[in-house]
Amino acid sequence: MKRCAILCGSAPDGFTQKKINEMHDFLTSEAGDSWAEKEIMIFPNGVSEAMLSFVLERLKADKTEQILLYICTLSPVADSDKSVWLGGEEVRKSVIEAFCADEHVQVIYDCGGELVREEETEKDEEFFSAEADVFSKSLGEMK
């Protein structure tokens, strides 16, 4: 089965969000179904709407059977929000919903304000906190 996880973060250059790292570790673990590294794309410092659209179109053209789109923002995402902000880039939720309008796609919105320097090891991690809440839902709940 062809599958792909796309992990999109909002961290400034030189940092990554702790939750992006945790999601990656979960997916590659046995509990997360042992995803291979080649099945995971990471945009830790944001992604433009054009790039995200290109990636999603390419995956659909390649007949990818399972797509997990994990969007980790620095502030909560409400149902009424028309866009999400990823590393200073605005991505309209309508674009995400249009590409993800089938049962093979799961979208998770998460809010993670803890940042870690990219070059630091796990035991030397330095965290920077912002207020954070978690908001997650599948496409079926978005409609």
What does this molecule look like?
With 143 residues, the chain is of the alpha/beta class. The chain is 24% helix and 29% strand. The strands form three sheets. A four-stranded parallel sheet has the order 3-1-4-7, covered by helices on one side. Strand 5 and strand 6 (89-92) form a beta hairpin. The chain starts with a strand and ends with a helix.
Short descriptors:
globular, 143 residues, four-stranded parallel β-sheet, alpha/beta, disordered C terminus
Tell me briefly what this model is.
It is built from four helices and nine strands. With about 140 residues, it is of the alpha/beta class.
Supply the helix-strand structural class. alpha/beta
What average pLDDT do the residues reach? 83
Strand content: 25-35%
Helix and strand pattern: EEHEHEEEHEEEH
Radius of gyration: 15 Å
Q: What's the β-strand tally?
A: 9
Q: Which stretches of 5+ consecutive residues score pLDDT under 50?
A: 121-143
Helix content: 10-25%
Shape descriptor: globular
Count of DSSP H/I helices: 4
Biggest sheet, open or closed, and with what strands and sense? Answer: 4 strands, parallel
Distance between the termini: 27 Å
Give the strand line-up of the largest sheet: 3-1-4-7
